[in-house]
């Protein structure tokens, strides 16, 4: 391995993540533990870091050059030894004929064989908290006696979402919210107040810079009366309906929940300029935000009407 690069070249993917970079650099030259757990908020580069780490290891010149055959296969998402599970719930799979990307499929048709082209196979779970129940038990068993030619990478937004038994099997690679300078560098041309809204993560970048979101911010700014509030509520509900329809076509970045999350974000940001004068409205928005992830059917419309009732009462009161 002498003469090969011993640092990750594609630093863009790891901007503002010195600790993660340090740890991953170590494993370019040392044996990689069976499980690496990339832990930290969404939108801080975990997914691209995993990709560039594996690409560096697969690359003919260990530089993630982008030119060699393994690099090109990785870039096209076609490398047979890099298995990316979907981000939604991971299933155990049928005992006899397990569907692709289930745990039984992984164990019977992948892990028991040597990698096709690379020295080591990598299996990525983009949301490790989605591995539960039987799937989790089976995977834990695998991790107890890890297959010689396979390494696992788990991504998780919060370590508390994983069981201690899982955490104890892995090495944690910590990701933190990005410093302002890194966000600025990664989002050229972004204005300072939008930068505030991103809050150290690129997760909402495409949405926050979209026309719809800017429209939303302008509308929140333009509220001067109870009537304005009633109109905004109607507008938001219309947007939500539109987003639900568009969600099937996957053309619209706003899911219903997402829309409300971002509306709250824009609103709080606006009102927080004068926290004293807006205390009651801010209270209403913060408690709405806490209720947002209640998945009881019919709860969200109720919660939204509570929010607007409180805001209308606070407006001009
Ligand atoms: Zn290469």
Write a structural description.
This protein has 2 domains: 11-176, P-loop containing nucleotide triphosphate hydrolases (Rossmann fold), CATH 3.40.50; 210-314, no CATH class. 48% of the residues lie in helices and 8% in strands. It contains 14 helices and 5 strands. The chain has helices at 18-26, 46-58, 69-75, 103-111, 133-144, 164-167, 180-186, 192-198, 205-208, 211-221, 226-249, 256-271, 279-291, 299-314, and strands at 35-39, 82-84, 121-125, 150-156, 171-174. Helix 4 (103-111) links the parallel strand 2 and strand 3. Zinc ion binds at residues 59-61, 65, 67-68, 70-71. Residues 59-61, 65, 67-68, 70-71 line the site of zinc ion (ZN).
Integer-rounded radius of gyration:
23 Å
What's the number of domains?
2
Identify low-pLDDT runs. Answer: none
Number of E-state strands: 5
CATH superfamily of the largest domain: P-loop containing nucleotide triphosphate hydrolases
In the CATH hierarchy, what is the class of the largest domain? Alpha Beta
Please specify the SSE layout and strand pairing.
Layout: H1 18-26, E1 35-39, H2 46-58, H3 69-75, E2 82-84, H4 103-111, E3 121-125, H5 133-144, E4 150-156, H6 164-167, E5 171-174, H7 180-186, H8 192-198, H9 205-208, H10 211-221, H11 226-249, H12 256-271, H13 279-291, H14 299-314
Parallel strand pairs: 1-4, 1-5, 2-3, 3-4
Helix pairs in contact: 2-3, 10-12, 11-12, 11-14, 12-13, 13-14
